[in-house]
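Attaching the record inline, Q. Sequence:
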Amino acid sequence: MKIAELIELIDGFAPYSAQAEYDNSGLCLGDPEEQIDAVLLTTDVTPEVVEEALDRGCNVILSHHPVIFGPLKAITPADGMRSEVLIKAIKADVALISAHTNLDACDGGLNDRVATMLGLQSIEGEGTFARVGELESDATATLEEYAAFVSEKLGDPTVRYVGDGGRLVQKVAVSTGAGGRDGELFSRLIAQRVDVLVTAEVKHNLALEAKNAGLGVIECTHHATERCAVKILGELLQDAGVEHYISEKDEDPYHAIDEKE
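Structure, as predicted:
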């Protein structure tokens, strides 16, 4: 398979035309006519991930987050991790592709997958980058209990919550990644009397608004809400017969104080 064909495969599942206006998903680096040896899947591309790709014989890295997200004025060793990644990838002839907000938004994509993982049923879209569903009628849980459940399912020991921990939870919203910055989403969920929003990167003022309005919030790390992106992309590549690996160097930068190494 050529790199261009891999991009077409991703586009068929998670159309790049649906990515957010601010996003930069797609082919970041490389020749679309190059043949693929193997693909390394990762949430983020770090220098360690590029080294891992070389060790595994992968000439393509498919990530969730784009390496180039904003303008670059220079690519030198002094210009930070992003430049270091690009220099390593260019020298090694490793292509960089991402599927970001298009994967968040698509049917069967990241928000749908996480909503299902968290036990939601009758899942419906809430805007482009969120989902709302219901827990099973007999799956009663308090906000504190559900936060513990989310922590376990997403493998995130840093989870914390906003609201009355003893309040029962039934109607749940999910917005992976930086949904905790979206004030309009919070307003819509409050109007719909959603019990709790599971998200990341919650702004302080929105946490206060949610607490005052009775909207519970369960905050995870950004990485924890999106790490299953590699599984979704892996299933896509598996069905297409593309050799691939899931990175072992892709790590959440956050750790809990009492987390065991």
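The chain has ten helices and 13 strands. The first strand starts at residue 26 and ends at 29.

More tomorrow.
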